[in-house]
């Protein structure tokens, strides 16, 4: 793990994430079944957390714990009688982790809620998974807080206070990152539905799912409204009994500030949006976490208090090859008159940005989330002349602003987006040996002014259609919630 270990020294800041916690770590938690736990909600939550943390299959325990709370709520939950006409909204999201796409989705959903429910004076709270809020909207929105340390318990307490619960994270129906994260998002909506809330997964996507997650999805298929951001997700979820409606991603609504507002530059810019696609999913390992704590040690693979990234020699070799593809692209683009700029869409990507920079034979600018704020990172992509990305929302930003973009994809999401936009030749797998040549071939076509204009027009046409769909989503949501809670 040589390169990865070097590049993450000091260890990455995502240790501050509370996934799948709310506040406390499991070290020192009350053992499961301890006396007094049942009479003390915090102690009971700690006991459940301890059971989860020490399980052989933590993700399966998490899904089971979510399901038990959903089932109990469907039998016994009672809604608090409304005392006013204000709308209490809870947003489930990945915000706070320094992920630009997740944050843009949250920001634009908040703006839409404030618009379509203006007459209801919406009271919005964010159920966040971190502490990085470097945008004024995210900084100002109220954050849900609770002493309950185990996330299913915290979710139940949160949804009990809401009228409308929206899952605003895009990567929902997938095991790519963690079944516990998917269980929080899918289960949070199902739990809200069981509590009598208007509950919606808002502009979400799907991907490969483990057998336990598929069973969880099937069991909760009719709990809450699911709005997908592409037709392929609707089709995949239909096979699991979920009747998803076609919608759009909220990030299409975000618009970059004009170039004249402090964004001047010379020459052409190529945004290289890199990440480490190969250290997912994360897994829970309480003994390793405790051993590190006892020794006062750290791990570059640590992700939050309990979780660790997957890593081995084979993953490292694949990652090295991936970096070489990007380095070859960067060098070739420089020869063609572009300034390569390395972009880290999530603060977790900073290590990959520096790993790529180390492979280039020239100095290169890095714009990475954490050191750079959300607005700077997003604007860098939106104002590029072309982009190559493994990050989905970098592709959204590019297409949304008429920037030709080639996807080096790690899963289905970028492929679906570019196929729908009429750019089916503009993506390849990030582990494909022929991806570099294909990307350079596509970008070379931009030297033809007519071809560039055609690509830009296709991007703008698709982006405009997506923004229109998202605006209609908001109007539909408002009418639906009015009928449920105020009709």
Task: List key phrases describing it.
487 residues; single chain; disordered N terminus; 15% strand; 6-stranded parallel β-sheet; 17 strands; alpha/beta; 8-stranded parallel β-sheet
Parts with pLDDT < 50 across at least 5 consecutive residues: 1-37
Query: Hey, roughly how much beta strand do the residues contain?
Result: 5-15%
Helix content: 40-55%
**Cα-to-Cα separation, first versus last residue:** 59 Å
Q: What is the average per-residue confidence, as pLDDT, rounded to a whole number? A: 89
Shape descriptor reads globular
Q: Output the number of helix runs.
A: 17
Structural class: alpha/beta
| Largest beta-sheet characterization | 8 strands, parallel
Radius of gyration: 22 Å
Extended strand count? 17
């Amino acid at each position: 793990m040589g390169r990865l270990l070097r590049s993450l020294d000091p260890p990455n800041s995502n240790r501050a994430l509370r996934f799948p916690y709310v506040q406390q770590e499991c070290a020192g938690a009350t053992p499961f079944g301890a006396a007094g736990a049942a009479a003390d909600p915090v102690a009971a939550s700690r006991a459940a957390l301890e059971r989860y943390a020490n399980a052989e299959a933590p993700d399966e325990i998490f899904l089971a714990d979510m399901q038990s709370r959903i089932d109990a709520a469907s039998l016994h939950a009672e809604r608090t009688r409304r005392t006013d006409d204000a709308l209490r909204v809870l947003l489930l999201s990945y915000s706070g982790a320094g992920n630009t796409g997740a944050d843009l989705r949250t920001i634009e959903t908040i703006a839409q809620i404030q618009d379509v429910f203006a007459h209801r004076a919406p009271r919005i709270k964010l159920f966040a998974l971190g502490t990085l809020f470097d945008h004024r909207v995210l900084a100002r929105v109220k954050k849900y807080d609770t002493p309950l340390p185990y996330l299913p318990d915290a979710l139940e307490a949160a949804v009990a206070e809401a009228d409308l619960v929206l899952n605003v994270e895009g990567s929902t129906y997938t095991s790519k990152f963690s079944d516990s994260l998917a269980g929080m998002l899918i289960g949070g909506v199902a739990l809200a539905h069981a509590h009598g809330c208007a509950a919606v997964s808002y502009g979400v996507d799907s991907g490969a799912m483990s057998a336990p997650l598929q069973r969880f999805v099937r069991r909760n298929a009719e709990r809450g409204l699911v709005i997908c951001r592409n037709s392929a997700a609707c089709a995949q979820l239909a096979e699991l009994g979920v009747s998803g409606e076609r919608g759009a991603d909220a990030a299409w609504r975000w618009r970059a500030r004009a170039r004249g507002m402090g964004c001047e530059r010379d020459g052409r810019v190529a945004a290289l949006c890199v990440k480490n696609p190969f250290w997912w999913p994360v897994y829970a390992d309480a003994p390793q976490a405790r051993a590190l704590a006892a020794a006062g040690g750290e791990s570059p693979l640590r992700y939050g208090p309990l979780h660790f990234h997957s890593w081995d020699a084979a993953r490292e070799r694949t990652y090295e090859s991936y970096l070489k593809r990007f380095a070859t692209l960067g060098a070739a683009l420089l020869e063609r008159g572009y300034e390569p700029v390395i972009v880290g869409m999530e603060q977790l990507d900073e290590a990959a940005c520096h790993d790529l920079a180390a492979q280039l034979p020239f100095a290169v600018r890095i714009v990475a989330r954490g050191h750079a704020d959300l607005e700077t990172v997003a604007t860098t992509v939106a104002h590029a002349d072309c982009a190559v990305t493994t990050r989905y929302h970098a592709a959204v930003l590019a297409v949304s602003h008429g920037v030709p973009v080639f996807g080096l994809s790690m899963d289905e999401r970028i492929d679906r987006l570019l196929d729908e936009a009429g750019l089916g030749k503009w993506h390849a797998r990030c582990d494909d040996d022929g991806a570099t040549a294909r990307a350079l071939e596509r970008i070379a076509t931009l030297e033809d002014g007519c071809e560039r204009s055609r690509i830009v027009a296709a991007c703008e046409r698709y982006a405009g259609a997506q923004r229109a769909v998202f605006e209609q989503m908001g109007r539909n949501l408002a009418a639906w919630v009015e009928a449920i809670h105020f009709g």
